[in-house]
Amino acid sequence: MQDIHSLLATLHRPRLLMRAARIGAQEYRRTAQLPRLLGYGVLPRHGDALMRLLEIEAELEEQRANADACYNLVRHVDVLITIVGEARELRAATPYPQQV
User: Fold this and answer.
1) Mean pLDDT in residue range 21-38
2) 21 and 77 in contact (C-beta within 8 Å)?
3) In the predicted model, what is the mean pLDDT of residues 69-98?
4) Which partner from 2, 51, 89, 98 sits 20 to 30 angstroms from 33, CA to CA?
């Protein structure tokens, strides 16, 4: 099983989608965006939220790749923005191992 950082490193999407996600992530607010995608209530930890977001994004990516009529580009960008924002917050919250 891969850790969350490995999963994020292997996520490859079209350049325009990722560029939009990075720009949107500059204004990312966890308390406003995360409940909209994952449901209201207690916010999950960063790792748990990312795993759920990656599942949602995988479904959207499959719809996009298959040219599914149900595909929603705005929702896909919104999920990618949240993934990028959560990944940044996870990196900031994770202490780096000290070099010996």
Assistant:
1) 91
2) yes
3) 86
4) 2
Q: H-type helices in 4-93, by residue range?
A: 4-9, 15-25, 30-38, 46-65, 73-93
Q: Where are the domains of the chain?
A: 4-93
Residues contacting 13, CB < 8 A, separation 6+:
61, 80
d(CA 68, CA 5): 29
What percentage of the chain reaches a pLDDT higher than 90?
A: 54
31: tokens are 């308390």
Angstrom distance (rounded) from CA 33 to CA 85: 10
| pTM metric for this prediction | 0.84
